[in-house]
Amino acid sequence: MIPIRPGLLPNQSKKQRSYPQFCGDNFLLNSDDCDAALEQITCYDIDGLCVTVIVLSMLQGPLSDTKAQKSAPAGVFVVGSGRCGSTLVSDMLNTRADLLSVSEFFITFISRSFIYKKMDAASFWKLLSEPSPSVKKLLTPEHSPEFLYEFRQESLFTPENIPPIVGVMLPHITNDPDTLFLEIEEEVKSWSTAEVSTQYARLFNWLCARLKRRKWIERSGASLVIANSLVAKFPEAKFVHIYRDGRDVVMSMLNHPPTRYIASTWINTKRMGVDLLRKPFRLGECRLVAEVENHLSYFLNIEKRRDRPLSLRGLGEFWSEMIRVGLDDLSTLPDEQVLNLSYEELSANPNKALRQLMEFIDPGFCDEGWLAEMSKRVHQSDHRWQNLSRREQDELLGACEPGLRALGYTI
């Protein structure tokens, strides 16, 4: 058991408060960057690790920057809960020579994606190129069906040092991810300091120019988790929300370790009063959460949490909360910037749904031959939840009902 002791006591001044840092076996909070009011100190046992959790009533300053930011160049984001059919959409878009289909970009560093207001070239490159301990255990050929990078004798990377953008994103758009990675490194390191959203847009736009594509479309699994940040930082972008009956999503989540890991983390931290889907601890926005995750990952058994089965109720509640939070975020945008597309619509009439998708992205991308060819790739859902016992079906429906109702499904 490794004790983690808080260095911040109730009678300490604000100037002594800050983000967590590790020093030996101590968990220290002693900088002047965090203006936070301490409510309680509670001890929890997580995977055999004694953790002292500080519940803060207010997080300000660099911990979660919510100030208005300058608009970044417009693109398209495909968002969803994960296991909803968005990967299929991304793969179909990737068959077009005129579109840049950026796959699984933000998910590979999701907790750190928007915790900084601005980033210089070195910091941004570090974000893109250095994997966190948890990503190294989750983004692998064995545990992530989306993983595309091939480990060969001549490859630049091994499973131990593969950069976040190399596992899926680069092999998705090129047959030579190693060379493109080195080109991106040279380019990014020449950039000036800018808003983090501008840095992302610079990267996507540079890739469009380099690969001769007309428009970029980013899609990451479970991206509804960071929808608030995407909407705030890319206010001119279009958003395609792919959704699916939550019961089908949960059945798929059961066999998908990365999504199950995110759900498990949400379930466990929520028991401590920390909701990673809502402010002030929202994943992707809260620097405190990112720092704690980074440090604790060295002590927690990531493999155990990754491989641990979750209940239907737990996964269903996670899905419902993601849907409700994500819909709230998307509702702040003008109607013309959001397309809601269900997997059921896509599978029932793929040509019609894909036409709607392409007309939303840009009417100039509607191609009859492409629509006909891609329609052949779409298959009906097997609705495996119907094979559950009546008790299990009722448990799953009870957990998914809030999300289903929010999406307009008939219960």
Describe this structure in words.
This protein has helices spanning 86-93, 121-129, 133-138, 169-173, 177-188, 196-211, 227-233, 246-253, 257-270, 287-296, 302-307, 312-330, 343-348, 350-361, 368-375, 390-407; strands at 21-23, 26-28, 38-46, 49-56, 76-79, 99-103, 118-119, 194-195, 215-219, 238-243, 338-342. It is of the alpha/beta class and 411 residues long. It has 2 domains: 1-61, no CATH class; 76-262 and 308-407, Rossmann fold. The strands form 4 sheets. The chain has a 5-stranded parallel sheet with strand order 6-9-5-10-11, sandwiched between helices. Strands 1-2 form a two-stranded antiparallel sheet. Strand 3 and strand 4 (49-56) form a beta hairpin. The radius of gyration is 21 Å and the shape is globular.
Secondary structure layout plus pairing:
Layout: E1 21-23, E2 26-28, E3 38-46, E4 49-56, E5 76-79, H1 86-93, E6 99-103, E7 118-119, H2 121-129, H3 133-138, H4 169-173, H5 177-188, E8 194-195, H6 196-211, E9 215-219, H7 227-233, E10 238-243, H8 246-253, H9 257-270, H10 287-296, H11 302-307, H12 312-330, E11 338-342, H13 343-348, H14 350-361, H15 368-375, H16 390-407
Parallel strand pairs: 5-9, 5-10, 6-9, 10-11
Antiparallel strand pairs: 1-2, 3-4, 7-8
Helix pairs in contact: 8-12, 9-12, 12-16, 14-15
